């Protein structure tokens, strides 16, 4: 299937998953703690079931690595696979505040790089989609527009950073790079703010898994940005246990 057609189909899947999440939003769903200490709720599981059923129907020949399906994490990464985080920013979801910074994430990886992805923030009704080579879009309140990264403003770049998982290494990096303007926001929306020209750089030194970053990374690539390791090496997917190392996401082409 053509990548752009697949992206369009995944937008609809992400919307269905987001609608299922919103059924639980504000309703204090029961929280379980996973072995890594991170929370999971019935909303994560409901969204994942919708996405996995849709992928099994539309692209059954492609392997799926999904956050809440722990058996999938034991797979040896093939050359082509989906990465799914049905509810990224679970801590923000549970806060139930006006920021609404939680997302549904679906990405396709080919040869270690994300080639397409969708990120949907149902509480904000912002849906980002990117197909590398064809561009990126944001659909908000029924209106779709093309998006692209911006050149950093003359007064200096604006950074984005995690809200719930800030760490000393990130603070040091921001200080060393003289970046004082930082937006704290949960979930993969950080990549999307770079992709749509609302921010310029996203340094991440704390823990993330590949499903946390793949879809946002795809949207950012499609919008003209890039992600590298802090020492400027390629940031690839299909790593052991699907665990990421530190990275810098930026608006410039790399
Ligand atoms: N100590 C930790 N152990 C495991 N995962 C962590 C973690 N700290 C952060 N994460 C990951 O960071 C994601 C949230 O990123 P952010 O802080 O940018 O919102 C979480 O996604 P989930 O909410 O899907 O579990 C989780 O996968
Ligand atoms: Mg996540």
UniProtKB/TrEMBL annotation:
- What residues bind Mg(2+) 2, as annotated? 85, 88, 212
User: What is its membrane topology?
Assistant: Peripheral membrane protein
Required co-factors: Mg(2+)
- Positions that bind Mg(2+) 1: 67, 85, 87-88, 212
**Where does it live in the cell?**
Cell inner membrane
Q: Does the keyword Iron apply?
A: no
Question: Has keyword Cell inner membrane?
Answer: yes
Q: Which reaction does it catalyse?
A: adenosine 3',5'-bisphosphate + H2O = AMP + phosphate
Q: Which GO terms describe its cellular component?
A: plasma membrane
**According to the lineage, what is the superkingdom?**
Bacteria
Q: Which annotated residues bind substrate?
A: 67, 87-90, 212
Q: Which UniProt keywords apply?
A: Cell inner membrane, Cell membrane, Hydrolase, Magnesium, Membrane, Metal-binding
User: Which Pfam family name is an example for this entry?
Assistant: Inositol_P
Q: Spell out the family assignment given in the record's similarity comment.
A: Belongs to the inositol monophosphatase superfamily. CysQ family.
- Protein name, entry field: 3'(2'),5'-bisphosphate nucleotidase CysQ
Query: To which species is this protein native?
Result: Hoeflea prorocentri
Gene this chain is encoded by:
cysQ
């Amino acid at each position: 299937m053509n990548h752009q057609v697949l992206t369009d189909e995944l937008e609809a899947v992400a919307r269905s998953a987001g609608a299922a999440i919103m059924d639980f939003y504000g309703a204090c769903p029961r929280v379980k703690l996973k072995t890594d200490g991170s929370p999971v709720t019935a909303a994560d599981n409901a969204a994942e079931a919708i996405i996995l059923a849709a992928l099994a129907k539309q692209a059954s020949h492609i392997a799926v690595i999904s956050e809440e399906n722990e058996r999938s994490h034991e797979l040896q990464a093939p050359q082509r696979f989906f990465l799914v985080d049905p509810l990224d920013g679970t801590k923000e979801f549970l806060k139930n505040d006006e920021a609404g910074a939680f997302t549904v994430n679906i990405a396709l990886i080919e040869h270690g790089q994300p080639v397409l992805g969708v990120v949907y923030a149902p509480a904000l009704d912002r849906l980002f989609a990117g197909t590398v080579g064809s561009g990126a879009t944001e659909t908000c309140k029924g209106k779709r527009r093309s998006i692209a990264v911006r050149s950093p403003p003359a007064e200096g770049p604006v950074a984005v950073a995690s809200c719930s998982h800030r760490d000393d290494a990130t603070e040091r990096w921001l200080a060393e790079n003289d970046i004082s303007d930082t937006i704290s926001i949960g979930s993969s929306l950080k990549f999307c703010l770079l992709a749509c020209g609302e921010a310029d750089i996203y340094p991440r030194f704390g823990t993330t898994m590949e499903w946390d970053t793949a879809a946002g990374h795809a949207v950012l690539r499609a919008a003209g940005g890039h992600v590298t390791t802090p020492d400027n090496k390629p940031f690839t997917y299909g790593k052991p246990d699907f665990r990421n190392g530190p990275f810098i996401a930026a608006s410039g082409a790399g």
